[in-house]
Fold this protein.
Amino acid sequence: MSEAEKPARILVVDDEDRNRRLFVAMLEADGYVAAEAADGAQALELVRQSPPDLVLLDIMMPGMDGYAVARALKANPASRSIPVVMVTALDDSESWQRGMQAGASDFLTKPVDRIRLGLRIRNLLALKANSDALAQREAEMRAMLDHLPDAVVQIDARGVVRSANPAVQRIFGHAPQALIGHSVTGLVPEPARAELEALIEHHVRSGGARIIGIGREVTGLHKDGHLLDLDLLVTEYQHHGEHFFIGTLRDISERKRLMTDLREAREVAQAANRAKSEFLATMSHEVRTPLNGMFGMLELLSLSTLDTEQH
């Protein structure tokens, strides 16, 4: 059975045994798996051992009351997302307000109607499933961004950094958190800073596409002051009418250094080839010059009549 097919687990917290048995019977009749806790401390321990999908929580309990239990659940990141339905005989606005402030998702007044209970639970479990799916998607996207070799920087329309991935530190030397809330122009040298600000302002104002979806080579500024050769690609999105930009930056300094080395090596090789050609041409000339004289003398002798002594 997959996780999606498993019945939801609901923890019933009430100091009265009769109330717990009643809730457990109603929940199991609707196909849920129910667990019980007789007080707040036991409830928190059960949540720690095996977090449920939802908590039905009585308010009026000795020792740790329902408000304190709800606050403890919401203070713990491991249980913060678990919906809490407070069940109470109290029916006043002050109790409701205290419950909401403690982190309750909903309120039910005793005696609890089974149909109403079932609807509240289904709605809250559906909301939790959607929230969990979004959180999982966000975690996957964050993991992907965290492992990208390229720096990814998100900025708003004013050029203020909203987020940055860990590659920013490797490329620029800045911790990602240190950039958030500051202008992205701190990553570029002058006079490119003013140019970048003008480009962002022009794009937001005119809606032009001068910077969107076009790869370009730019110069970046490392934290220690040295310049970086970078490839930059900018994408844009809007949220609630606001413009946001995502810049993906790849350090191409090493690639450009290798290209420069290759170009210089090619120029050296070409110069060596030219020198070799000139040397061979000179040697050929020097060798041919005396040979030409010798060939001329031999031809002259071959045309002359020689006596016995000359032969």
In short: Residues 34 and 240 are 42 Å apart (CA to CA). The radius of gyration is 40 Å. The chain has a mean pLDDT of 85.
